[in-house]
Amino acid sequence: MNDRLFPARPILAVSAAVFRVGQVLIVRRARAPLIGHFSLPGGVVELGETLAAAVARELEEEVGVKAGIIAFNRHVEAIAHEENRVRTHFVIASFVARWTSGEARLSDEVDALDWIDPTAGPPAPATPGLAEILAGAARIESERA
Question: 99 in helix, strand or coil?
């Protein structure tokens, strides 16, 4: 994690709003940054890895599910400052996906999870912009049903 604090450049990451029977999977972060906040499953893209491959790997590693990407939702810029320095800077490509297999489970990165109604909004505390990301994902998912 130390290479992610006070980075020399933005770090590319992915997330996925995974839908299953009208519900979306959310997780509570068990690690910094934003430990204890609800978010979408995801993580950092590895060198040489496509965004789709990163989504698949992160879903499997973090929560034990498989899903097929149906669309790109939006990008998220997560920037935090400490005094006059940039503490973290992530650019997150957020996707919409449909569950295909696996039962969601906890991991060392996730200490709680739930399948929720995406239009009801996430529980608090949530990562910045999560309600808007879920609303956009729900629109996309319903259009592609």
Answer: strand
8: helix, coil or strand?
Answer: coil
- Give the pTM: 0.94
* Two tokens, residue 134: 């879920």
**Token pair of 36 as six digits:** 């204890």
* Beta partners for residue 25, in sequence order: 115
CB-count burial class (<10 Å; 0-12, 13-18, 19+) for 46: exposed
pLDDT digits (tens, 9 = 90+) for 4-43: 889 999 999 999 999 999 999 999 999 988 899 999 999 9
ω into 33 cis (within 30 of 0) = yes
**Per-residue H/E/C for 96-125:** EEEEEECCCCCCCCEEEEEEECCCCCCCCC
- In the numeric block, which tokens belong to residue 140? 């996309």
From the list 1, 94, 91, 88, the residue with the least C-alpha distance to 41 is 94
At 97, which amino acid appears? A
Alpha-carbon span 40 to 70, nearest angstrom: 16
Side chain identity at residue 40, one-letter code: L
